[in-house]
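Onboarding guide, step 5: your first structure request.
Type a short instruction followed by the sequence, for example:

Predict the 3D structure of this protein.
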Amino acid sequence: MSQPNESPTWDPVWEEIFRSKGWGKYPPEHVVRFIARTFSGAKDRSAIRLLEIGCGPGPNVWFMSREGYSASGIDGSATAIERARQRLASESLSADLHIGDYAQLPWPDSTFDGAIENVSLYSNPSAAIDRALHEVHRVLRPGAPFLSTFFSDRTWGYGEGNMIEPDGFLDLREGPLAGAGFCLFLDRGRVSEVFHAFTDVSVERASWTLNDERHLVELLVITCRKQAS
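The system replies with structure tokens like these:
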């Protein structure tokens, strides 16, 4: 459980979203690329332990397990975790899945060879993101890489809600994140601040348009690593 005065990294609105929508079946290209470039040369993939925080219904965990890695995932939604388990079981795959708060990970220090999160951290205020990243750093082995993805401040909907903190809005009135609870859009200049505990921080961008190119959705695709001993 979270400490007093520390809200969990989980908004119940996502339980309703996962119950009502069937999306989230396949991994995005940047996740596939990260896994392939970083780990595909391993002689024994089953010895590579990979973690996803905010795994949702498990498209990325499914991909990692299907590729032969030892996959783990955590999400606050019981519905999402159950769907992930059912999908894995239907293909005779397995993963270590947990329902819980990823600001308090249930794994020991230095457990994982790599970790990912795909547009999950953004749904938390900065203080909760910092706690979650501290936990990711803790469970990674020295030198292990981490992939994180945030919506940029150029994404449709930025500023169209109630500002709770700098770049953080509640009750967005338009855009792809409307109705999805709190959203923290990440400015490129804040990346070093947010990922201060990590080294070799690098940023790429991925984007697409909506409504006949009238609106932009842009992701900051961030790679970094825990400093080697």
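Each response can be followed by summary notes, for example: Helices lie at 13-20, 29-39, 59-66, 78-90, 126-139, 191-194.
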